[in-house]
Structure formats: C-alpha cells, structure tokens
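// run 5 | inverse folding | seed 20
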C-alpha cells in the first residue's frame, strides 16, 4: 500500500523513502454552542486525520482479512485507526463509524472500539510484555465475523466484526512517529484491492443534461453558480453522492473544511491537505469552489480562544490578518494549489437573539470591535485583488430587522468593501409555519429583497438553502423552486447553493428523522440509490422556467 498509494492529501502525514512520517495536527471540533460559550469555556472533540484522498482497502468478497502496521520511532502516543468508513463530520460534532483505534504509549497499548450501535466507545488497556523500544507491530485479523488485534504478538480479543466491504485508515500523533509498513492480505480466499481516492475514481462522470446547472445553462443562465455544500469524507466514501454532485451542479461549497479550526488547528501550523484535495476534485470536474468561512464566531481552535482572550486589539488583528492572508493567497490560482475565487469572509456576525444588531459576544468582536468586519475584508482583498468576498448570515431573506441591520452595516463601510451578501435561506418548521413569511416568499418578495442590495452596489447569493419537509413534500418543493427561480431570474443574484443535496447520514439538520436529515430535495438510505423528492423536480422546472 505504501508504494502504490498517494499520501499528499492526508493531514500531518508525509511520505518519505517508503515510510510515512506522522506529525501532530491538533485537529479538533468545537462542541460548545454559541449560547453555551457565554457562560462556559469551549469544549472540543478530537477529529484526528483519516486517509480520505488516498488509499483504502476494498473487500471484493467476504470480510476475512489481515491488516498489519509497523510503527517506529514513537514519540509520545502513536495512534493508528482501522475503520469501516470515514467518520461523519458536522459543524459541532464528529460521529465515529465502526472501527478500532490502537494507541501505543511506551509499554501500554489501548484499544478504543467504536461500534454502530453504541454512542460511547469501549476501551481496553494492556501492559505490553518484555523490554520496550520505540517500535511496535500491530496486526488485525477478522475471521468468521470476529476481530482479534495483536500488539507485538499480544492478543486483544474484540469479539465483533468491524470491517464490512471496506477498511479505511487514520493516523494521529501526540508528537510524532513513523509507519514503516502497512499491509493488507486476504484470509480464506477473500479478494482485496486497494482503492486510491486521490486518483479520481469519478473520471468518467460528466454533467447530466437534466442536472440543475445544465438545465439552467440551456435556458440562458449559464452564468449562475448552482451547487451544494460538501465534505470531502462524504464525497469519497459515498460514490453515489459524488456522482450526483458532478452530474447536477457547477459549484461546491466547503462545509467545514475551510473553517478556522480545520485549517489552523495549532497556531501558525496550517493543515491544507484536505482542502487541497477538494479543490483538485473540483478542478477535475469543472466545478467552482465557494470558500466558507474565514472569520466566524464558531468553529475556532482552542488556541485561538485562549489567545484572543488576552490579546490586544493589534495582536488580535494580526492573528486574523495572517490567517486570511495565508488561506486566500494559497488558493488565488497562482500558487499551484488551485482557485477559490469566492469567499465568505465574515460568517454570521449578527446576534442570534437580537436580530437587529451585531453579535458582541464573538471572540472577534470582543477583541477588536465592529471594525473586525471591515478589516477582514481588507485583508482578503489584499491577499487576492481578483477575488470576490462576501458576508453571510441567516434570516436576511425572512426578517426585516435582520435585513435592515445588514444594510446599515454595509452603509457604514466604504462602498466596494463587500461584493455580495449570502442569504442562508434555512427554512425550518417554525419558518414554514409563519404565514406572513411564507406569503412574502411564495408571493414573489425575494426579487425585491435582491434589489435592495443591488441599490447598494452589492450582489446576493442564496447560500445555504435547506427546507424542512414538515410533512408536506409539495410545500417543501414550492419553497425550493421559489428560491432557485428567483435567483435565476434576478440579475443581482450570482448563485444558489444548498447546505446539502441529499438527506442521509451525512446531512446535518436540527430535526433528524431516524438519524438522517429531512431538509434536502433528495434522500438516500445508507450508500443506496439517491431518490428525488418533488422538490428536485420542482427546481428542475424552475431552472427551465
């Protein structure tokens, strides 16, 4: 596997002379909600690197397999993960799929056993025999539905099956270690193959003539960007979803992968590997990338919370400017890492409780004041003068106070600071039950809202559309069609983007149905076929209307 695989897109991992050098990344997901952050310090869930755009093992028949990893030069704790599939990642949580984390620290090995049935993992700890070195051999054998893990020959009986049709890998270090070997071999005639997801398994997939972007282009609206938010893990672990995205859209939006905690988890140490992989995927399939989001009062790393708490205004500005500059310049199309032309520079700056004013409780406002917004845009434009930079928030399209607050903010800044405003367009059950809001939306009020911003010289985009089904698939379809149709017919609207194109286990929603989302225009059970709801058909008609 080491000789045949691609490893450039794995955070913290460097391939060198047939070995993998693993360094600490510090990747973690902020769990604490914005409301909780007012009264308690932030808490985090580790989000260690997984090999996504790289090699994993496909079990062509059966599930009997042996996997072995040789570790050397262990400094601190070394962890290698063996998983049935990549973990599902969301804004404020990580959901582990079935798998085993094997961690080794000096003379102690610890197994963390994740299952699909239990929310919390089971842990097994064992003292390792004999004189210890910084080298160790880990072997997994799954036979007849049972898994055994051995560390330097000492067995840990797991007594359950982990791998189904695939085996994925992850690796994380407290300090550093080296993987000298990583091999998979069949047991009892099981056929194996290595699938390298960095080598574009979707090379033959092309846009469909009935895809939303293609239909819009065929009716004179090829300048509009139509897309969905995505995560690299879902694209590469859910082939049907990836094909659906390529066939239907001309844009993808970074879901969590370009937020501060993902790109700079440790101060001054940027982790661009996965975002590089996503941009490469987009370029191969002629998809634009919408960057989301550079400055946000959520999704920030622990070090940033600590630093901003004691930073002067100038020190806080320096941290913010450096982050924006590093990220925007890397993807300006001139440095060999591809192009992200459009960025949500400031995300959700308005108060979640008092909709007519800015949120003064974010780490950015507390350290810098309102000027952080203008300063962020200036830093982004300096990093890429040819880029397009926007402000993104929710309920702008449904609440007059919120919308007026955005307009007032734009008027306080020099003209040309903000290129576009993102209207998130999240329609939950409460919004759908608000007769006044629905009458305004379905009655044709959106073009007038778009025109308000046009009068300020600012474009708009429908940036994160999600519409709860709420027991009425036709009402859901009507809202989706109205959102898309209004954007396509308005010269001032540059694009339409959904927060997820398919309700499945990877889709985040506040009202999950049996563990999956219910807000998208299509559905998917497991990795099965994608089934279109009336909403998708209605949007296709709107694209042609």
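// decoded
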């Amino acid at each position: 596997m080491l000789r045949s695989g691609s490893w450039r897109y794995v955070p913290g991992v460097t391939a060198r002379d047939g070995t993998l050098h693993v360094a600490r990344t510090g990747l973690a997901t902020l769990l604490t909600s914005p409301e909780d952050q007012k009264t308690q310090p932030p808490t985090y869930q580790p989000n260690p690197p997984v090999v996504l755009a790289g090699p994993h093992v496909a079990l062509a028949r059966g599930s009997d397999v042996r996997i072995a990893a040789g570790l050397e030069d262990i400094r601190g704790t070394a962890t290698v993960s063996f998983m049935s599939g990549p973990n599902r990642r969301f804004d404020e949580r990580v959901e582990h799929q079935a798998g085993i984390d094997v961690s080794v620290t000096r003379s102690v090995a610890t197994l963390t056993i994740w299952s699909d049935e239990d929310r919390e993992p089971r842990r097994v700890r064992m003292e390792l025999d004999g004189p210890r070195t910084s080298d160790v051999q880990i072997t997994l054998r799954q036979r007849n539905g049972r898994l055994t893990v051995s560390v330097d020959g000492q067995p840990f009986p797991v007594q359950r099956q982990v791998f189904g049709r695939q085996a994925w890998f992850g690796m994380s270090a407290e300090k550093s270690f080296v993987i000298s070997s990583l091999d998979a071999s069949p047991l009892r005639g099981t056929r194996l193959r290595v699938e390298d997801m960095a080598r574009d398994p979707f090379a033959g997939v092309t846009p469909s003539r009935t895809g939303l972007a293609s239909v819009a282009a065929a009716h004179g609206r090829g300048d509009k960007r139509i897309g969905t938010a995505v995560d690299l893990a879902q694209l590469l672990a859910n082939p049907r979803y990836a094909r659906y995205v390529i066939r239907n859209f001309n844009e993808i939006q970074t879901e969590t992968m370009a937020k501060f905690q993902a790109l700079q988890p440790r101060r001054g140490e940027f982790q661009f590997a996965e975002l590089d992989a996503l941009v490469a995927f987009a370029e191969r399939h002629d998809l634009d990338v919408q960057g989301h989001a550079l400055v946000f009062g959520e999704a920030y790393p622990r070090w940033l919370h600590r630093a901003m708490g004691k930073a002067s205004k100038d020190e806080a500005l320096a941290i913010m400017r450096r982050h924006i500059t590093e990220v925007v310049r890397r993807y300006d199309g001139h440095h060999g890492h591809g192009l992200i032309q459009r960025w949500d520079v400031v995300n959700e700056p308005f108060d979640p409780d008092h909709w007519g004013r800015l949120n003064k409780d974010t780490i950015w406002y507390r350290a810098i004041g309102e000027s952080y917004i203008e300063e962020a845009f200036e830093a982004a434009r300096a990093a890429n003068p040819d880029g397009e930079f926007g402000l993104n928030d929710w309920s702008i399209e449904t609440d007059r106070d919120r919308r007026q607050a955005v307009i007032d903010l734009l008027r306080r800044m020099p003209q040309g600071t903000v290129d576009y405003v993102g209207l998130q367009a999240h329609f939950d059950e409460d919004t759908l039950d608000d007769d006044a809001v629905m009458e305004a939306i379905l009655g044709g009020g959106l073009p007038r809202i778009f025109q308000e911003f046009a009068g300020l010289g600012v474009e708009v985009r429908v940036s994160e559309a999600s519409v709860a089904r709420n027991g009425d698939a036709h009402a859901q379809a009507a809202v989706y069609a109205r959102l898309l149709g209004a954007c396509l017919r308005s010269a001032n609207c540059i694009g339409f983007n959904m927060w997820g194109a398919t309700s499945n286990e990877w889709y985040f929603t506040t009202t999950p149905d049996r563990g999956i989302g219910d807000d998208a225009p299509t559905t998917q059970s497991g990795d099965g076929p994608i089934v279109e709801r009336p909403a998708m058909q209605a949007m296709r008609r709107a694209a042609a209307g």
